[in-house]
Amino acid sequence: MLPIVSVILPTYNREKTLPRAIDSVLKQTFQSWELLIWDDGSTDNTHEVVSGYSDSRIKYFFSENRGVTYARNRAIAVAHGKYQAFLDSDDEWLPEKMADQVEVLDAYPAVDILFSDFFNINLSTNEQYQVFPRYAQAMSHLDIDKIKDELSIIVKGLGKAIAFDNFVATDTVIVRREVFDKVGYFNEDLRNFEDFELWWRMDLAGVRFAYMKQPYLRRYKSYDTLSSSSILTYCHILKGLDCCWHEAMSLGRPDVASELALQYRNVWQNLILAYGKVGNKKKALDAFLQSSKYGIRLGSVRLIFQAFWQ
Q: Which of 22, 79, 99, 290 has the fewest other C-beta atoms within 10 Å?
């Protein structure tokens, strides 16, 4: 019998945290699932960790290092479940995650993709907080049909809302398989921002989103100081934003494309700070000029002064 849910779990050199993620799937109250672990070229003991589990529903795949997007897409391609869910190898689900989300998708066939609130855990400070309350301003842009206290169907406004701030965490998502047949998979040209680009593309294609206020995920995050690696991340985000802009324009939706302006400005502002921190004044000035295309803000002016005279 085929599983109801395919759990897509990409991993790369996460031998220490991977058991926590796998165990959280095994502890689900809903048991009709397969767990597809796609090892993106790990050089640690990832294979040995997975081999320690005897559950036949756990399937291991290995490929050369191509990035998380490639790993997710390859796993989606071989998945058997009518629903696809995602989990990162350093995070964990709460036990009712699959059961509650499958119940919603079964009950509401008009819903194509479902996400939920989650807990962020700062590994540096051990602070834990529920995320949706901190995204209240972004989520205020949503036009919703509230089905019950814990469930709302998004009628419109998702693109504008996530352009303000992306609150759709991939680890909380469960989606009908046919949605990928309609809009395609994650964009493998992107090293970051691939999740935002997919939600944006789905929304443009008329995919119906819904969300649950109940948190079903603990996401563990490290907050590093600004560095050359963060500069590269911001540059990848700009590439993702460009993809989203072109997608909207190709559909004759300049009004939708314009909703990305805030994201563009924020990324360029972050680059002013990042380049200033590493002493690259020319790049900091270039970033300031780019951010100014979306309106000159006092914050941008302050950052460029810091870059030159800190």
A: 99
